Amino acid sequence: MPSVTHAVSDFVTAVTGIFVSLFNSIFAVFHAIFALGVDVVSSVLTLIKQIIAAIMELFQGVLGFILANFVAIAVVGGAYYAPPSAPSPFLAFPTSPDRDRAASPAPRANVPRSNTLGSSTAASMSSISGYQGSVSESRKKQSKRDDVRIEYSYSLQSRSLL
Asked: Which stretches are transmembrane (predicted)?
């Protein structure tokens, strides 16, 4: 007749067997994942090795020498003529010595920047719109605009002093 101790011992053995089986299953899953990763890395390395061997075999002999020189010239030429990632300001607006340039305008009066109108990158509208008048007319108009700006900035200064 079975005793209570024998039943408890069978129960503990069964529970222990369940936990051991669960641990073995989890270990088998992780082992399979690790083996898959090792196999993928090994396959990729073998593929790279085969590609390098094929390239080396292709570039052997006289035809390979000619083809290697052609590829080298194509790579160097492609690198030379490839567009840069950010255009250089010197390449964006090239200058040539034979291009006619207007002389620099007269310097403006020494006015603090905080009281001036417009921005530091202001350009005359005649130069932006493609105005075809003479250079002297453009200078006269620019001089008048500068005079108005200076007078306005002086009037702002005098108002702030009052």
From this structure: 12-38, 58-82
